[in-house]
Amino acid sequence: MRRRAFLAAAVPTGMASAAWAQSSALPHIGYLSGRSLATDRALLEAFLEGLKASGYVDGRNVVMDVRWADGHYDRVPALAVDLLKSNPSVLVTVGATAVTVAAKAVTSTVPIVFTIGVDPMTLGLVSDLARPTTNMTGMTLLSTSLEAKRLELLRDLVPAAKSVAFLVNPAMPNVAEQIRDAQKAATALGLKLQVVKAQEDAEIDPAFAALADDIDGLAVAIDGFLIGRRDRIVAHAAARRLPAIYPSREFTDAGGLASYAARWADVYRGAGTYAGRILTGARPADLPVQEPTNYELVINMKTARTLGLAIPPSILARTDETIE
User: In this predicted model, what pLDDT tens digit does every residue of 72-84 receive, in sequence order?
Assistant: First the structure.
C-alpha cells in the first residue's frame, strides 16, 4: 500500500494532506511488512505509539512510507528496493523473517529496525545481540524457540494425543530450524509429528486434506503468511475437531483453541521507540537487540467447550487470559 492510501485509512484527512505536502522536508521511515493492514493494523498502531514516545508523530515531524507484502514473500525484495528509492532515514522490517533477510540483501548503509521471530545472530543479521555492530537492530520475538513449549502445552491440553500435525510455510528462511525444533520436541514428548506445508492460498486446503486420520492435534508455526490466513486455518481445525496451539493470540481471537507467544504489541512498540531514537542520532550498532519480557498463554474457552475439552486446572492457573 502506498503512503497516500495508508494515510487515508489510518489518519484524519487534514493530517494526511499536511503530511503529504511536507513530505519532502521531513525525515522518512520506510515500513515494510510481510503481512497486511487487515491483519496488522493494531501492531502498526503500537509501532506508532513507540515512535511518538520518542518524539515523532507521522505527518507532523516524520513521514511514514508503508508497503505490505500480504504474505507473498516473493514480492518483498522489489518492495524493499522501491522503499529505498525514497531515501528513508530508517527502514523498518516486520511481519516475517523473510522481510528482514531481504532488506539486508539490498542495503548495508540505511539503518534497519526489525522485528523478527528468530535469533538474528543465526541468520548473520547482527554479530552480537548486545552490540549489533551492523546497520541493523531491533526486537526478536524468539517465536521459533517456543515451538517446543507450544507442543508441550498442546500435549498438556490433550494428554491422550499420540500424533500431531505441524503446519509450516516452506518459504520461511528458517523453516528447517522450525521443523527440526518441533521434531525434537515431539520425540521428547512421545508424539508422532506430521509436517504439512503451505506457502500460497491454494495450498492451505490440500495441506489439511493431507492430514493422517489419526492426527490428534495441530500446531502452527510462526509465519506472517499463516497468521494472515488464520481464519481459514482455524476453520479447518474446527472442521476436523482438532485441538490446536497457535503462535499468536490473533488465532485465539479468531476462534482458535490456544496460543502462546510474546506480547507482540510490546515488541512493535519497542521497534517504534528504536526508530525514533535512530532519527535523533542513535546508531543501530549501539542499540542492543531486545528480547521479549512478557509471554502470554491465551485460551478460547468457547472453543474448548465445543471440542469437549476440559482444560486442566494446572493449565488454567498458568493462563494469562481466557476468551469466553
Answer: 999 999 999 999 9
Q: Is the pLDDT of residue 2 over 50?
A: no
- For residues 271 and 115, the answer to whether their CB atoms sit within 8 Å is yes
Q: Are strands 295-300 and 258-262 parallel, antiparallel or unpaired?
A: antiparallel
Alpha-carbon dihedral of residues 291, 281, 84, 103, nearest 10 degrees?
-20
Quick: pLDDT tens for 127-159.
999 999 899 999 987 655 688 899 999 999 999
CATH of 144-262+296-323 given 3.30.70.370, 3.40.50.2300, 3.40.50.300, 3.40.50.720: 3.40.50.2300
Number of H helices, E strands in the chain: 14, 12
pTM given for the model: 0.83
Q: What CATH number belongs to 3-142+263-293?
A: 3.40.50.2300
User: Can you tell me the distance from the alpha carbon of 134 to that of 314, in angstroms, rounded to the nearest whole number?
Assistant: 44
- As a whole number of angstroms, the distance between CA 74 and CA 80 comes to 11
- Please give the sequence-ordered ranges of beta strands (E in DSSP) within the chain, or none if there are none: 28-33, 63-68, 90-94, 112-116, 136-140, 163-168, 192-197, 217-220, 244-246, 258-262, 295-300, 321-323
